[in-house]
Amino acid sequence: MFNGAKPPSPLTLFTSTSSAPLTLFSVHADRALPEDSGAVFLYDDTDQQLDSAENDPTRLARDVRRFKLCSQSGKGQVTLPGADGPIFHASSRPGRRLSETVLHLQSPNIKATMLRCPPLGSSGAPTFSPEAGATVAQTEMALEGLPFLHLHLAPLDGIGGRARPLSLEVGVRDARGQLARIRASTFQRDASLYLPVRNTSSDMTGSPLLHLPLDLPTSPAKDPTALTAWSVMSLPLHRLIKLFNNSSLQHAAQEHISSHTQQDVQGQCKRIEGFKSIAYIHVHANVRLRRIWCTSDGSVEPGKTNDPESKGFPEFWLVHAA
Predict the structure, then answer these.
(1) Which of 6, 56, 134, 280 is the most buried (most CB within 10 A)?
(2) 6 within domain boundaries
(3) Which PANTHER family does this one have (predicted)?
């Protein structure tokens, strides 16, 4: 997409209030759950759906006749067959809400429901698959020089005010051109490193995956003192990529593998050498999105630089009050 270009900082990739917010993205949802899975542009403070071409249900993978908005005020709840209770509660969302358009993305199946860049089938290119590695490099973002990824988001509330499962994944390439995947999820408890698997021909397939716990600010539905569920999350990709060389994380994640096999796999995996570019971005349900952008110095606001080494912030990323 960017062909290795180094655009000026900041670079906005997605903003829900623009006239064409999905220029660089595509939306995908679980077609097996048409009532519960899909995306819609709406006003955050009223839940009123936006009346525009950007809300085309086909483009947003939404069944307009069956889709039910999970956080619509006072409109009941969504329960799946065989479930012990409601999957989504449709109660009013407390706390300060944005008086502008946002993208609402929901699904019980977060793996199959996402916002992705590059868009699927962009410019007639073959489907991008992170597992396919360098063979599909021509369909990647190839965005260099901007190692900080920022997202302005609000997780969707579920039962008892608890946030619904939420996950995001970023593909990055190192100085050697190797692909590495960084995933952050609200249901992940500890940082874990998963190395590629070995196929029958003794070749390594796939890309290493670093799975990190995503700890967002407490929702007003759970904590009355919280002013809003909205926050800005910043990922310092140039720091996170260094964790792929941390063998202790890999040992904790794959302790079920024999030590002999583990050493064999480690020996075949090349060392990840520094951040070069962003290959892709996947934001999975369940979330409301306002903006996605990249910077060179981690500044969330013009003129303000947020140093990831600053005390008082989480080690892996920064979370700022919206």
Answers:
(1) 280
(2) no
(3) ORF PROTEIN
